[in-house]
Amino acid sequence: MSESVSNFIAKSTVKAGDKEHRRKINFNIGKYNAVVPQGKQQFTDMHLARERAKNVKWRAIETLDKQLEDFELNFGRRGGKVIWAETTKQALDEILAICQSKNCKIIVKSKSMVTEEIHLNDFLEKNNIESVETDLGEYIQQLDGEPPYHIVTPAMHKSKEDVAKLFANKLGTDPKLNPEQLTQVARHMLRQKYVQAEVGITGANFIIADTGSIAVTENEGNARLSCAFPKTHIVIVGIEKVIPSINDLGLFWPLLATYGTGQKITVYNSIVSGPRQDGEQDGPEEMYVILLDNGRTNILANEKTRESLYCIRCGACLNACPVYKNIGGHAYGTTYSGPIGSVITPHLKGISEYKHLSYASSLCGNCTEVCAVKINLHELLLENRHEAVEEGSSTFSEKAAWTIWKTTSLNRKWMNLGSQKMKNWMVNNLFKAWKQNRSEINFPAKTFNQLWKEKKGIR
């Protein structure tokens, strides 16, 4: 058993039995579920909006090379610089080179899952550069030494009491502060960093090809400050975030807001098209966009799983997933958790090491039902399982067990063989893995065929 598998089993077992953890998650997801229907009311035809969004992303991904080249050309016309990074190492080396050329000591950073993917904060710390998370949820997580728990709401698993205790321990504040007071403490601490920072780093919700711009949507204004205050702005973004036209934002921004937080539109929506121009008073002197591959072309090359690149990172599938709601985000042991993480991580990091994530699913299909761009997530989970078998990553015992199950399930007479006691003994004792996380199974005394025949009077 690999280390990632054993860690997942251990962490998920602990969290699944943690009632306080479940209470917090159900409370926060309950608040999300209450407001999303209100946000959806802005759409005349929700089905059509999602279908249009999927079609736009289909076009963008199918012509990804052209879209990215158009972005680079248009962004460069306004003085921006594009850097192509195939791997994590290439991205980190480029960021470090920029920071060292600016004699950077402090970086302010807005919320970005891609920077979590490449473990940017740890890398900068090792190179004596302070990287400060400016999103409140991310700031809380950074203080606690934890990665984000959720794609959209990184500190979802913490109660206000947890945060007050954390601030008291780390910042010396009163442990009885309320949420408003805690926010003011964070605001005061972070505002000083904006003034001191030489470099600001952000992600991007969308890359706009026809204008050479990046689009950022947020609720706190910290990303906008990270863009504008420091003299140098670095954007790190996955290549799949491209959309063909600025006109597409009229669909994607409301869609992302509704499925992400239940809002009609988020508070701050910014389009940044390069460094400060002549005659402009605000903005950085230099702006770089690092286009990160890091395994995404592996997904692009796979026709069946390619649609997972349509994801706009709204987090709706996490909130809908019964597995995520039981084990939480950290149990996955990956940057991207929940259904979308289970789909893409095996392709980004290797199926042999992360195939277990595709089995951490009830296959209820709820993730597909709520996806803002109609990705068939539950089908892609099955596809991952199929590819894992095709690549030979299944053990002999696993193959044998499924062969027996398939053979028996396709033959009704075989399924009806044996007594109730014999079936119970075989499943509960012969297949030992069954009882590791389940109670003993108890087959009915009569099979469905017997009950049917009795009901119909068939002999």
Characterization of this structure:
The model has no long low-confidence stretch (mean pLDDT 93). The protein folds into three domains: 1-40 and 304-394, no CATH class; 42-294, NagB/RpiA/CoA transferase-like (Rossmann fold), CATH 3.40.50.10420; 404-456, no CATH class. It has helices at 3-16, 19-40, 46-62, 64-76, 88-101, 113-117, 120-126, 136-144, 160-171, 179-196, 222-228, 249-261, 296-300, 316-320, 322-327, 338-349, 351-354, 366-370, 377-390, 396-409, 412-416, 420-430, 448-456, and strands at residues 81-85, 106-109, 130-133, 199-202, 206-208, 213-218, 232-238, 242-243, 268-272, 286-292. It starts with a helix and ends with a helix. With 459 residues, the protein is an alpha/beta fold. Helices cover 53% and strands 10% of the residues. It is built from 23 helices and ten strands. Helix 2 (19-40) packs antiparallel against helix 12 (249-261) and helix 16 runs parallel beside helix 19 (377-390). The longest helix has 22 residues, at 19-40.
